Amino acid sequence: MIPIEQLPNLLVSNDFTRLQKCLIAMATDVERHWRPTDVRTTITDHGLPAAKKWNISSILSSAGSYTARFPDGYSISLDGRKHIAETVGPVATGIASPVSSQLRQHFGGITDPLTRSFVEESISAFESSLFRSAVVLSWVGAVSVLYEHVTSNHLSAFNAELLKRNSKARSIKTTDDLSLIKEYDFLQICSAISVIGKNVKGELEKCLKLRNGCGHPNSLAIGYHLAAAHIEVLMLNVYSKY
After folding, report:
1. Which residues of 96-123 are buried (b: 16+ CB within 10 A; e: fewer)?
2. pLDDT, tens digit, 9 for 90 and up, residues 167-198
3. Distance of CA 46 to CAs 12, 59, 162, Å?
């Protein structure tokens, strides 16, 4: 989460507390179980020898929800990661990627408050390395954009195609009505009436599949690159177009 080369600049700063500096050190390897001696060594080896006198055990044990304790040491929790991302900032944590920067650019053009909230949360989740959350929220935001576009510009064509596929279906009048349709079926209808192209539909189906995998309890693990690719597809084919 934090590149190791950033540690000296961060650790010597007077802007952070001792606890925050311990968390910053632990954020260089968020999967590791840290012994207090390991935290001390990392801090002292990267520009802050004064930490030799710190009671690291006491600091970590009083960290509350920012750390999780295991038999072999402490790990920085999701709350701790979010706290450090907010405290240090995305530039210093090395997570201000082109993906999140571009998504922020598109964020400025979104007027619907509900969609804005989904996109804003997805950006924050991505920059905090909460990749499953970022996948889900960015998908929900993209679908919200498509819902608004369809209801504003293609409602008659959408209803005609919907009734062609299901004669008992209720006509769509609002974006809330669209939420009653399965998202996979929504994509098929959008493709049939040329709101999206066939190839775009195929990529969005992959995004939907990943969203479903991330949105339900399971053992799926994803990292930066898969989440970034997912968001990039949505940016290029939804956020930047509608």
Report:
1. eeebbebbeebbeebeeeebbebbbbbb
2. 999 999 999 999 999 999 999 999 999 999 99
3. 9, 19, 62
Span 136-149, pLDDT tens digits: 999 999 999 999 99
d(CA 10, CA 183): 45
Backbone angles phi, psi at 170, to 5 degrees: -85, 140
The one-letter code for the residue type at 163 is: L
Q: Six-digit token pair at 6?
A: 């950033």
Count Cβ neighbours within 10 Å for each residue of 205-222 and write b for 16 or more, e otherwise.
Answer: eebbebbbebeeeeeeeb
How far apart are the C-alpha atoms of 2 and 90, rounded to whole Å? 9
Tokens, residue 85: 């991302």
Q: Which helix (H) or strand (E) holds 75?
A: strand 73-76
Question: Residue with structure tokens 């090395």?
Answer: 94
pLDDT above 50 (res 91): no
**Pairwise CA distance, residues 144 & 212, whole Å:** 16
